[in-house]
Amino acid sequence: MRLYDPNQAALEALRNSGIELILGIPNSDLQSLATNADNARQWVQRNVLNFWPSVKIKYIAVGNEVSPVNGATSWMAQYVLPAVQNIYQAIRAQNLHDQIKVSTSIDMTLIGNSYPPSQGSFRADVRSYLDPIIGYLLYASAPLLVNVYPYFSYSGNPRDISLPYALFTSPNVVVRDGQYQYQNLFDAMLDSVHAAIDNTGIGYVEVVVSESGWPSDGGAATSYDNARIYLDNLIRHVKGGTPRRPWKATETYLFAMFDENQKSPELEKHFGLFSANKQKKYPFGFGGERINEVVAASDFNATNPLKSDI
């Protein structure tokens, strides 16, 4: 599962659970961790070493969706890589860098071209920000965390993107891209990220889908059925990889564990697998087998969807 900040009660609850965790560092902490290595060491002591190994921290996500061209987060962009490096050095000093990978989570707005997927590239005005991060990830053998939402791509362009293509229900190939064929938008979006990384020429960096989901209410094409169909199909689909990476299952985190009734706009309240009152929303489950590739993201409270049906 994924926590967006190191909530101590949540970390205590995860002790000896066997649940692997993306542990988030909020954007508001980036500057202090980037400018003071002692702060990074203290953060690691307080939130990692105090819980490791009884809490299985797999990744540390240093910031979420920071972009140098997004007015709300642009001032933070200068701090992402130094914060990542300081946290990494603190982890490495404990000889845990092979077990706990340090990365950051980006969104699809950093992609400049995504069609066709093989021509995927990052925006020219984010390359000076992102290329050094990709270089670090290559050095540290860490994946890039990417939030991938076919819902937003579809709702922003329903004229050119069909709903079945976005929901994994298209009966036929929709996009032919050389040797690659795409029957769903998720694969096409994800492979455009793979291609964008490859096309930098920096080197091979894996991608983990750190968020994906579909709202059940509050906006265009939001419905209980659409959300249920998308999530159920996503869970089934990611075991098989993408056309560009067919040999590897896609590690994917569902957003989110719970509806968040204090968010805005309205559709942001309705991404949960559970309602805000903790009632299960959807009938599907993960089956009897443990599907390691699909997990859930939660701001604080979370249960383990891998061990019981959701």
Radius of gyration equals 19 Å
The SSE order reads EHEHHEHEEEHEHHEEHEHEE
Shape estimate: globular
CATH topology: TIM Barrel
Family: Belongs to the glycosyl hydrolase 17 family.
Organism: Lupinus angustifolius
InterPro entries: GH (IPR017853), Glyco_hydro_17 (IPR000490), Glyco_hydro_17_plant (IPR044965)
GO biological process, one term: carbohydrate metabolic process
Would you kindly provide a written description of the structure presented here, covering whatever features stand out?
The chain is of the alpha/beta class. Helices cover 32% and strands 17% of the residues. It has one domain (2-274): TIM Barrel (Alpha-Beta Barrel). It contains nine helices and twelve strands. The two termini are 14 Å apart. Residues 288-293 and 300-310 have low confidence and may be disordered.
Structure summary:
This protein is an alpha/beta fold. Helices cover 32% and strands 17% of the residues.
Annotation keywords:
310 residues, alpha/beta, TIM Barrel, two-stranded antiparallel sheet, 12 strands, disordered C terminus, glycosidase, hydrolase
Secondary structure layout plus pairing:
Layout: E1 2-3, H1 8-14, E2 20-25, H2 30-35, H3 37-49, E3 56-64, H4 77-93, E4 101-107, E5 111-113, E6 121-122, H5 127-140, E7 144-147, H6 150-156, H7 163-166, E8 175-177, E9 180-182, H8 185-200, E10 207-212, H9 224-237, E11 252-255, E12 294-298
Parallel strand pairs: 1-2, 1-12, 2-3, 3-4, 4-7, 7-10, 10-11, 11-12
Antiparallel strand pairs: 5-6, 8-9
Helix pairs in contact: 3-4, 4-5
